[in-house]
Specification:
alpha+beta, elongated
Length: about 70
């Protein structure tokens, strides 16, 4: 599902104007992102390190030059 940038910004600005908090969640895997969305997260921040963690590596592997971070996410 693709939502235009302007629409996203308008929703967030309306939420701030209404005095409601904006909730952002970090997700390194797809299941985390799905559950964050189901839980009502306003923003989902994605990390390339999730793929490395699922492979048994540490989170810092995402900072090393193992692959193209943009391609991974």
């Amino acid at each position: 599902m693709s939502v235009p940038r302007d629409e996203i910004l308008n929703r967030l600005k309306a939420q701030v104007a209404a005095g409601k908090p904006i909730v952002g969640c970090g997700a390194g895997t797809g299941i985390s992102a799905k559950l964050a969305e189901a839980g009502g997260a306003d923003l989902i921040i994605i990390y390339n390190s999730g793929r490395y963690r699922m492979a048994g590596r540490g989170s810092l592997a995402g900072l090393l030059a193992y692959g193209d971070a943009n391609g991974i996410v």
